[in-house]
Every structure is written in structure tokens, then in C-alpha cells.
Amino acid sequence: MKPNFSARIVSLEEVYAASYKLALHIMRSSYIFDTVIAIARGGFPIARFICDFLNIHHLGSIQITHYTAGATELEQMQIIAPVNTVVEGKKILLIDDVNDTGKTLITACDYIQAMHPALLKTAVIHEKPNTVFKVDFVAEKIIEWKWLIYQWAVTEDVLALLYKDNMLEENEDVAHAHLAKKYKLTMDKKYLHEILQLKKNYYKTL
Residue 145 pairs with which residues in a beta bridge? Predict the structure, then answer.
């Protein structure tokens, strides 16, 4: 985990707006795509929006593990579910939620290029400054690094942060204050309460 780690929750409304902005960028380009491939799991919501906005009917996926819950980075990329759609000869738009280090996208691009698509371009809604891989289409470039917790991963990430800090069994007010102080994470107390009701789905021994 980075020093001075800070995090924020990205709402579904923000994701929708950024996905629409991303679609407009793609429309202004000279590229026409016939297939979208989402990098699972985070790329799925954006990929579905893009299919809707650009009228693309073929949606596939590839699942790659780079981070586990709570911003814990793995040493190596792992493709745990290969591409599940036809790639050869297709015009592919590869989509993820965020381009953080770039390692996930590099792994996915190398894998897909070996399957001989007619075209392969990449798109994300957020790109961070520390990446080693620049994507083709970006909705928003993040200037100051933060760990972005998308709405579909809030339970997983918040519980992981509390678990690592031995805070899962603390009073909810104490846990809420801890997240705000250590991670600068702003969230409604009722939302945290709802998340904590789900912790046994993640940590069976509690």
C-alpha cells in the first residue's frame, strides 16, 4: 500500500457520466468497433454502458487478477478466465474501469493480440498518473493518486481495509472515524452499517 494512502468512493452516477463522456471520445475517433471485451470484474459496468451508447452487440470478457481487496497488489498478473468470445478478425475495444499501474491492461493486450484481432484499442473511465501504459480512450485523467472504490466493490474494499487494521470488531463509530483518519475515506455512517452486516460473507471466522 502506498504511503499517504487515500481513497474515495466512485458513485454509479459518476460512472454513468464518465462512461457517456468516454463514448463521445470514441465516437469522435475514426475507429468502428464490432466487439467489446470487458476486463472482469471492474470493467463490466462500463463495458455494458459503452455497448449501449455505441450500439455494439458483442460483449465478451477476460478476468485478470492484479489487486485483491483493499488495494493489496499481487506480485504477478493472473489470467483466471480467458477471453470468451471470438477475437480473430474482430475490431476489439478492450475496457476496464481504471488504468492504475497499467499492468493489467498490458497483460490483457498481449494475450488478445496473440489471437489476431483486426483492431485492438483500449478504454477506461479513469487513468492515474503512475501508469506505465497509456490507453487509447480516457474519460478522465486523475492528477492526484487515490484508491478509487467503485460502487460495485465498496463492500469488498471497505471490509478489507478494516480487516487489515484489526478494526472489524470495533464499534461502528470507531471504525467510521478510523477510515476517515487513516484513508481520508468519506462515507455515510448508515452505508458503513449496511456494509458491516455483510462481513461474514468475507471473513467466516468472525
Answer: none
Single out the residue of 155, 124, 147 nearest to residue 22, CA to CA.
Answer: 124
Least Cα distance to 110 among 99, 122, 100, 98 occurs for 122
Q: Which three cell numbers stand for residue 150?
A: 467503485
User: What CA–CA distance (Å, rounded) separates 179 from 167?
Assistant: 10
- Cβ of 142: how many Cβ atoms within 10 Å? 17
Q: Where are the alpha helices (DSSP H) in 95-147?
A: 103-113
Give 113-157 pLDDT, tens digit per residue.
999 999 999 999 999 999 999 999 999 999 988 999 999 999 999
DSSP-H helix ranges across the chain: 12-27, 43-54, 103-113, 154-164, 172-183, 189-196
